[in-house]
Design brief:
The complex is a heterodimer of chains A (374) and B (277). Chain A is built from nine helices and 20 strands. By secondary structure, chain A is an alpha+beta fold. The longest helix of chain A has 18 residues. With 277 residues, chain B is an all-alpha fold. Chain B is built from twelve helices and no strands. The chains are: A alpha+beta (374), B mainly alpha (277).
């Protein structure tokens, strides 16, 4: 726990007395055991199985309606599960009311109390817990300092900008040393530059506090940027939980592949290192998937010219569309595999091929990723 | 903005119409003010001499004074009951399922839809059987029923526009249901509650139909006393003084509500901005 004590002392103001900051013991793990929530006949969350490690930063990512917000509401206790269990540390909290859970929540719209000033907002959870005035003053100062809002303590909420409100909401959620911190699209209402700044701050705050964070978002970039692991959801089900790199290179299924960036998805079947497309083209692949499968090739892995691999077939495609998008050139080809998208980095040597040009292309079989078709 | 939508003539007609409407609404209310400060018995709008003698009568005449005190007591009693019941009712309805909430809302608004005469007769028949006619508390309860919608309507509207996440936030911060109610929900509802209370108070203070049925011979409320003053022996000029006092009270109440809502507006700006996102 050396990390947490140093974090606490770093957080206190210039007075520097390390005893004044709350002792930050780091977060507690959160485990989902086949957690489900049904509304009528539809599963908002279906058999959620996941373990979040103490002090882990986990994002729950999914399109709107995927059930990610319901998961957050289940953890916070604003809705109760239809079945399954939810553990905070070793304690089953599935049926415990939200005000006894000790979990901090940062809402998308901040949900600051408009009738209280900044100080009273942050003091709220401490007053509820019956702390002494002295302790409350100290902890509020500590939390506001952590989010650089110390000089705004006497402001009204309506006098703050969106970014400042976000910081106050963050301070209010950490001031009572919650066992875990939930965030529901906390940056969605901010403009882009501010969002990137806040991402850094949230991440460094989480690191220094050793806080367990579960962060709900629909923004892939944000999730990849912030998280130790990302849990991808769709239609109430968990699709994949993995580190950001693996989600891109080793997606579990076509949904995940399509959710993170562009992907060429080629359907067919695989057997002992050979993938046969629906149109009968045979391609070398790695991995031991057999049966119906989908081959995922990222656009930037498509290379033009002679194939480097000796056993890679000669593939030809006709250029149907080219587009410059910032620093990259998009080329769409009509090929025997269907439409193939490629992305080339612009440099002085490459020129935009004319539409209708026949081009040879291929990719490193190591970089193609084979997924079982569901 | 309207410059291009309306011709010159159209604008003139609209302005004239607006002025006419204002005059028509305001004059009957204000006409009694100059009459009430006239020195003599006659009802002239521009009095020859100025005097406050009709206000003195109001204070010195025991019957008038008792009526005024009774009406103030009655309005206070009934609007406190209506405010407590109405706020609780509105909060309850806001948590009911949409279908039930709709039915309940209609039910509680009924007192201002059903004709007063019908309600009055209904209460009279019930109270007569139970021997409750002519007592203060039953009359106050009847008034509370009548003025319940004045509390429920603004409070419901405010609840409807209130972000439910504020209550969730309170819960996540460790506040149980009661603390959330007293520290978050009620403070945020306060402007609507005060407005509702003021409307309810004014209506009860002014109410004559149901009071006529239920007050019996003993309880003479101010509106009843005024009614009497008009019926018996022509017009009693004290009525103009009473009306003026009522007018001033109502204006004061409106002023207070406005000030309160102004104060709340700066706070509300924050919650509204939060709602928009």
């Amino acid at each position: 726990m050396t990390l947490s004590t140093s974090a606490a002392s770093a957080g206190t103001s210039a007075k520097g007395d390390s005893g004044t900051g709350p002792t930050v013991g780091g977060g507690v793990g959160v485990s989902f055991d086949k957690l489900s929530k049904k509304y009528g006949n539809t599963h908002a969350v279906d058999g959620f199985d996941l373990t979040v490690a103490p002090s882990e930063f986990l994002s729950i990512l999914g399109p709107s309606g995927s059930g990610k917000t319901t998961v957050l509401m289940l953890i916070a206790g604003f809705v109760s599960p239809t079945s399954g269990r939810l553990l905070l540390g070793d304690e089953d909290i599935s049926r415990i009311p939200p005000y006894k859970r000790n979990i901090g929540v940062v809402f998308q719209n901040y949900a600051l109390f408009p009738h209280l000033d900044v100080r009273r907002n942050v003091a709220f959870p401490l007053e509820v817990r019956g702390l002494s005035q002295d302790e409350i003053r100290r902890k509020v100062a500590w939390a506001l300092d952590r989010v650089h809002m110390g000089q705004f303590a006497d402001r009204r909420i309506s006098q703050l900008s969106g970014g400042q409100q976000q910081r106050v909401a963050l301070a209010r959620a950490i001031v009572f040393e919650p066992r875990a911190l939930l965030m529901d699209e906390p940056l969605a209402a901010l403009d882009r530059n501010l969002r990137v700044d806040m991402q850094h701050e949230i991440r460094s705050l989480q690191r220094s506090l050793g806080q367990t964070v579960i962060y709900v978002t629909h923004d892939q970039e944000e999730a990849l940027n912030l998280s130790d692991r990302v849990a991808v959801m769709n239609h109430g089900r968990l699709q994949q939980v993995d580190a950001p790199k693996n989600l891109y290179l080793r997606p579990a299924n076509p949904f995940v592949a399509g959710f993170f960036g562009e992907a060429n998805l080629i359907r067919g079947s695989a057997e002992s290192g050979v993938f046969t497309t629906e149109h009968g083209v045979r391609l070398p692949v790695t991995g031991n998937v057999s049966g119906k499968a989908v081959l995922c090739v990222r656009p930037e892995m498509v290379v033009f010219g002679e194939p480097q691999q000796p056993d890679f077939p000669m593939l030809q495609g006709k250029v149907v569309e080219t587009r410059y998008r910032g620093s990259v050139l998009h080329i769409v080809l009509d090929t025997p595999l269907g439409q193939i998208r490629s992305v080339q980095h612009i440099n002085t040597t490459n020129t935009e091929p004319a539409e209708g040009t026949i081009m040879q292309f291929g990719w490193d079989p190591e970089l193609g990723h084979l997924m079982v078709q569901e | 903005m309207n410059e291009y939508l309306l011709g010159q003539n159209g604008r003139r007609i609209l302005i004239a119409y607006g002025l006419l409407l204002i005059i028509f609404i305001v004059v009957p209310a204000l006409v009694l003010v100059p009459i009430s400060i006239g020195g003599d018995d006659s009802f002239v709008i521009v009095p020859d001499s100025l005097s406050l003698r009709w206000y003195e009568v109001l204070l010195q005449d025991a019957r008038w004074r008792n009526a005024l005190v009774l009406s103030l007591q009655l309005a206070t009693f009934s609007s406190i009951i209506a405010t407590v019941a109405g706020v609780l009712g509105a909060i309850g309805i806001s948590r009911a399922s949409p279908g039930i909430a709709k039915a309940l809302r209609l039910f509680f608004i009924a007192p201002i839809i059903v004709p007063l005469m019908v309600v009055g007769v209904g209460f009279y028949v019930l109270y007569a059987r139970m021997r409750l006619v002519g007592s203060f508390v039953p009359l106050g309860m009847a008034h509370a029923v009548l003025i319940l919608p004045f509390v429920m309507l603004p409070v419901s509207a405010r609840l409807y526009s209130m972000d439910p996440r504020l209550e969730w936030a309170a819960a996540s911060l460790g506040a149980g249901p009661y603390r959330t109610m007293f520290k978050v929900t009620l403070p945020l509802l306060m402007p609507a509650i005060l407005a509702g209370f003021a409307f309810a108070f004014i209506f009860s203070f002014d109410e004559v139909v149901v009071a006529q049925f239920l007050s019996g011979p003993r309880l003479e409320t101010l509106p009843r006393r005024m009614w009497e003053g008009i019926q018996m022996g022509g017009l009693e000029k004290t009525i103009t003084a009473v009306s003026t006092v009522q007018l001033i009270l109502a204006a004061l109440a409106m002023l207070l509500i406005t000030i309160w809502q102004r104060r709340a507006a700066s706070r509300g700006a924050a919650s509204r901005r939060q709602n928009d996102s």
